[in-house]
From TrEMBL:
Full protein name: Uncharacterized protein
Domain of life, source organism: Bacteria
Signal peptide start-end: 1-21
Organism: Paractinoplanes lichenicola
Record keywords, A-Z: Signal
Length: 744
């Protein structure tokens, strides 16, 4: 017993001698282990226990531990205090053990399961580390490259101390290295503040000095760089002077971001509260945040833009990389309350040509003033002249954005009478770009100026609004009701727009009172439509009137004289019938739609030409016909034929018949009674004189199209037909042709 006691005392004495200074790795597995030492044990087996002694000179300490597994079974360790009471369990990899009193602690290492293994064991003290690096004030400058270090295999960690004012905001950089390097920042009372591991911001709480033990979580050897840059009262930042609008070349800053999550800082000073515009050429995925000197975030890219600064003073712009490759960038900031560099004031008339804006730098911001009156609803349009994107904001005299938040309305209302500005810029910039341009329009939606006046027109007549430029029209309505308003260019392609009332609010044309309205091509769309775009304006009652009557099956002809012209015809067809639309084989089929007696849509050409249209609602029925897109004005012919069996079409003779077509007739219809055809019928048509082609359609008694041929001078088709009567329609050319039609 005496011998055992003396050996323990010798061990404690040795541990006390080694405390506070690193020692060489233990020569064998067990014995005294100095703070900061890494013991390497080459073998442990079975139920063997290997005992280490660690002396801790200060009470209420934290022991950082690193127990690594080599090969074989995993180790674990139990820690007991000077009184023999259990304190904590050490598991594999990095850990921590909170101690109460000073003294010598025993660490007993064993295996989870019987077998063999090897391990390393290292310990580091929070209060009495083997060594600790004090970080100077200059370390927290953005100009600092940080503190480089290297952790050997099994190291329990490196100690750092620093002092910074409580409330300081630090940017914590990832230590990088070859593994998972991490550690906790603790205040003077050993309370957790932040974790060093990822790139993030940290606000220092509690009081200093602050402490940090940095370790690789699995004991792997690795280099690292500890870096913490102070955002509050930032130092080491490039100074940015606020640039004028227009070319900012003398005021530009630059920065480099070598890898993802890297940051750079820029300092700027404003002499009064106001709004700041931040421009970073961001095609390389750079985000930015503006902080005040207390380290509070004021605004960021994709958040509140422009940036409203609450007071005069210094501000820090932090740029951060979201890209994995190195980035060199350019930056400029503009005090949006200033007007230096703004272009000459522009008016709000729609008749004016669009402004052409030049940009010579990727971080240039442009400014265009205009005079507005309280209550005006104003909208800005912008379009690049090459592939690019334009961003634009309407600001007041303080630089604050006027159009804020989402609105279902277009434009925004000016809150007061005064001078406003459109602040705009291009977002993309090519490597060879030197002078890029875009167009800008600033227009008033309420009580607009410069819009040509149009009034509702009539069906069958040319559009009421003559061909001309300017993207808006003033619509004068004297009879309340529902209307359709559209534009058509000289190739008959439609131009759609938005209708606004006198205050610039959206209205729908289907229920207009008497009054003046504004129709704008493109409406709330962002792009410029300049005065080189011309169109006619068609304003028609939604329910046609004054439509000449035509008999179902009869051919009729008309001529479009201008783009956008709309014809209508009244059809004498009973409810329940089925109609199909036909055209000459040498003619153009207009776009048609059928309306019922209440003016509601029934069907259109897609149904009328491919199938047939059932007339389910009460009539009288109206056919509305428009030119096809891209088709020049000209003559057309069409016919609406009843195909449901209850027709006046003659019976198709068993031995066939001859059909003559011409200008007054390009279709011929025939019936085949139910008892005069089989389940399969073969139809043949052949041109015997004249020119042109024909096409054949076969309908059932319910008006369902069963067979149809393409255009050809002759064709034979075998058609499977259901029971019941059939309707056969042959279409031919207006130019005149004679065809022989047979069956069987």
């Amino acid at each position: 017993m005496k011998k055992w006691f003396l050996s323990i005392c010798a061990a404690v004495l040795a541990a006390s001698t080694l405390a506070g200074a690193p020692a060489a790795a233990a020569a064998d597995c067990g014995g005294p282990l100095a703070i900061g030492e890494v013991a390497t044990c080459a073998s442990i087996s079975g139920t063997q226990e290997q005992v280490y002694f660690v002396s801790v000179p200060k009470a209420n300490d934290v022991l950082y531990t690193m127990l690594t597994r080599g090969s074989g079974e995993s180790p674990r360790a139990a820690v007991t205090g000077p009184t023999g009471a259990a304190v904590c369990t050490i598991l594999s990899d990095a850990g921590r053990c909170e101690l109460k009193s000073a003294g010598t602690y025993k660490i007993v290492v064993s295996l989870y399961f019987e077998g063999t293994g090897d391990y390393t064991l290292g310990v580091q003290s929070l209060k009495s580390p083997s060594a600790c690096t004090t970080l100077p004030a200059s370390f927290f400058s953005f100009a600092s490259t940080g503190q480089a270090g290297s952790l050997p295999a099994g190291a329990p960690g490196d100690c750092f101390r620093f002092n910074q004012p409580t409330g300081s905001v630090l940017r914590l950089w990832s230590p990088k290295g070859n593994g998972d390097i991490q550690g906790d920042i603790l205040d003077a009372d050993l309370q957790y503040v932040c974790q060093i591991r990822y790139a993030q911001n940290c606000t220092l709480t509690g009081s200093g000095p602050y402490r940090l033990n940095l370790a690789e979580a699995y004991g792997n050897p690795t280099p690292y760089t500890l870096r913490m840059s102070r955002i509050s009262n930032a130092a080491g930042c490039q100074v940015l002077r606020t640039a004028p609008f227009g070319d900012p070349s003398a005021y530009e800053g630059t920065g480099s971001l070598p890898q993802q999550e890297d940051i750079a800082c820029h300092k700027t000073r404003v002499t009064a509260p106001g709004t700041l515009g931040v421009r970073i050429f961001d095609v390389q995925s750079i985000s930015w945040t503006v902080y005040d000197d207390a380290g509070q975030a004021i605004c960021s890219k994709g958040g509140q833009e422009p940036c409203a600064l609450p007071a005069a003073g210094d501000y820090t712009v932090i740029a951060e990389s979201g890209h994995w490759e190195p980035i060199d960038y350019r930056i400029a900031v503009n005090a949006l309350a200033r007007t230096t560099g703004c272009a000459a004031a522009t008016g709000l008339s729609w008749a004016a040509d669009a402004l052409v804006v030049h940009q010579s730098s990727p971080v240039q911001t442009n400014c265009h003033p205009f005079r507005g009156t309280a209550g005006d609803r104003v909208i800005a349009y912008a379009s690049s002249t090459s592939y690019n994107e334009v961003r634009k904001t309407i600001v007041d005299s303080t630089g604050a954005a006027v159009c804020t938040g989402f609105s279902e309305e277009d434009g925004c209302v000016l809150p007061a009478t005064g001078t406003y500005r459109v602040v705009s810029y291009l977002t993309m910039w090519g490597p060879d770009a030197t002078d890029e341009t875009y167009e800008l329009q600033v227009r008033r939606l309420s009580q607009p100026a410069g819009c040509p006046v149009v009034r509702p027109g009539a069906y069958n007549a040319p559009p009421s609004g003559a061909l001309g430029p300017i993207r808006c029209r003033t619509l004068v309505v004297t009879e309340p009701g529902a209307y359709t308003v559209r534009g058509f260019d000289d190739e008959n392609y439609p131009k759609y727009g938005q209708l606004y009332d006198g205050s610039g609010l959206k209205v729908r044309a289907y229920n207009l009172p008497a009054g003046r309205f504004t129709w704008v091509v493109g409406g709330g769309a962002p792009d410029v439509i300049d005065n080189n775009v011309t169109y006619v304006t068609s304003v028609l009652p939604a329910k046609p009137s004054g439509c000449p009557a035509v008999t179902a099956g009869a051919a009729w002809q008309a001529e479009y004289t201008q783009p956008g012209q709309v014809f209508c015809r009244s059809l004498d067809v009973p409810q329940g019938a089925r109609l199909a639309q036909f055209r000459p084989t040498d003619g153009v089929l207009p776009e048609a739609r059928l309306l019922d007696g209440a003016g509601n849509y029934v069907c259109d050409s897609a149904t009328l030409n491919q199938y047939s249209c059932p007339l389910g609602e009460p009539g009288p029925y109206t056919a509305v016909l428009e030119q096809r897109q891209g088709v020049a004005p000209g003559a057309f012919a069409t016919a609406f034929t009843r195909v449901d069996g209850a027709t006046d079409c003659p019976v198709l003779p068993a031995d066939g018949t001859t059909v003559q077509t011409g200008e007054d007739r390009f279709t011929a219809c025939f019936t085949i009674p139910a008892d005069q055809h089989g389940a399969t019928e073969k139809f043949t048509y052949q041109r015997i004189s004249g020119a042109g082609t024909a096409r054949l359609s076969v309908f059932t008694g319910e008006g369902v199209r069963y067979c149809r041929t393409g255009d050809a001078p002759e064709r034979t088709v075998t058609c499977t037909t259901p029971a019941g009567p059939l309707t056969v329609v042959l279409e031919g050319p207006l130019a005149g042709g004679e065809f022989r039609l047979t069956r069987g």
